[in-house]
Amino acid sequence: RRILRMAEICRKLETEEEKVLPFYPSSLTEWEQQNARKVLEEPPSEPLALAMQDYVGMEKFWKRFNKAKLEEKALEQARAALANRNQNLRGMLQQYLAGAAIQKV
């Protein structure tokens, strides 16, 4: 139920681009895409592959979920970098103010 509720929220928060182009561009070459299509057309023989067919409908959800997690991690790294930069700038400001105070005396 939780996953379905999250999927509904994701659909509501889709950007216009995601609504128009729901599929992510592939980074595979044409030859790799053809090989992937051939493999996907073959019936699965392993038990895990058979079980995975039940969850194919969730693929779009998991792509979006993973995309959101990657963006979250990228934002965390950017925030850490900005905090570090802010700390450096504060240190430089303190040095400048200390130098200005010494020159006045």
Automatic annotation (TrEMBL):
Keywords: Coiled coil
Coiled-coil region: 65-95
Keyword flag Coiled coil: yes
Protein name: DRC2 protein
